[in-house]
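Look at one record.

>
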Amino acid sequence: MTLTQEHRERILAAVDAAFDDQISFTQELVRRPSVRTAESSSQDLLYHAMSARGLDMDRWDLDPEELATHPGAGAVEVSYENVSNVVGTYNPVVETGKSLILNGHVDVVPEGPEDKWERSPWDAAVRDGWLYGRGSGDMKAGLVANIFAFDAVRNAGLLPAGRIHIQSVAEEECTGNGSLSALMRGYKADAVVIPEPEEDMLVRANVGVIWFRVRVAGRPTHPREMSSGFNAIDAAYFVLSKLRGLEQQWNDEKGGHRYFEDLDHPINLNVGKINGGDWGSTVPAWCDLDLRIALYPGVSPDDAWDTITGLLTGIRTDESGNPIHAEATKTGFYAEGYVLEEGSEAEQALRTSHKEVFGEELKSFTTPGYLDGRVFIQYAGVPALVYGPVSEAIHGFDERVSIDSVRRVTKTIALFIAEWCGVTEAPAA
């Protein structure tokens, strides 16, 4: 059945009619902290919400041994017991339309010192057109938007003609193993929508990421004899300076990487954690640096890893001639970046839907952050449309998402579902 303007207006009106409920549900999801390995309560809520909509439900714990067989998997340093994915599947009576995955991640980054927040990071307060809280923007508002966009199509008296998988995955913030596990479980479709906080725009390209730990060795002594020892923490700063040199080298190469030429600093090396020494009055014998570095699309993690480990192996002494031994291990992401090639049918459908809602053309941009879109583009060969609402301070204090933007993005996704999957009129009750 051809999607008419009258159908579109019914869908948009359905989003508005349920929007207060949508925001309330998002607040409830934000109030359930879902930092790494503690996602169960949030996944319980989402499982029951999807089940209540009559979807065919699937929930499973991630399997690190199975994931380790895949080249795109990240290293795992935590237990995956009770770390689960939730997928609700809509199957039309007769499947005549294209299939779709609506993907989002439920895990959030740690909140940091709570006294630096204006309110508790789990209050989910609404103020001045913003919904606050850890994970509000990244990306619980988008995760809920997927569900309510699907609702809007059906509440408009229409039935999608294509199969739809609504996915809530874990591990996006650290390995990407959640979306990868769903793919390995057999969930595939003709297109994917991921409503990450992307400023009402479409992501054209993004970097890959490697997480790794560098351990630097020292020689312990009593501080009264410091000159006879060698401080591993001091040595770690020297090693870091060499890695900063590699970071600069890779940034200097941006002109050779499509879509990254105009970014100021696409390759970022972040020192996420430092841990070293055993005693305040002992010259430290060891220091660990937990690091994250970005890669351009087309640069394989294996090649980048060889470069990193080769650099560390080549560090023999510091500037004073002290011997240095630095060794790296993988700790999380081991992911290649991706480019969303222009001109796909799915992108055109999103552009049409966005323009209907926003009244202007859809813009695209390149981001130096990680996104699960790489799983679907690299390993399933399907377009992954990463497109979502305006947010501020994600991963920071007082994270927040624009409520007006969430409304409009939900409308865009709802229209996209109808456009992409096709619709039929629901039978009269």
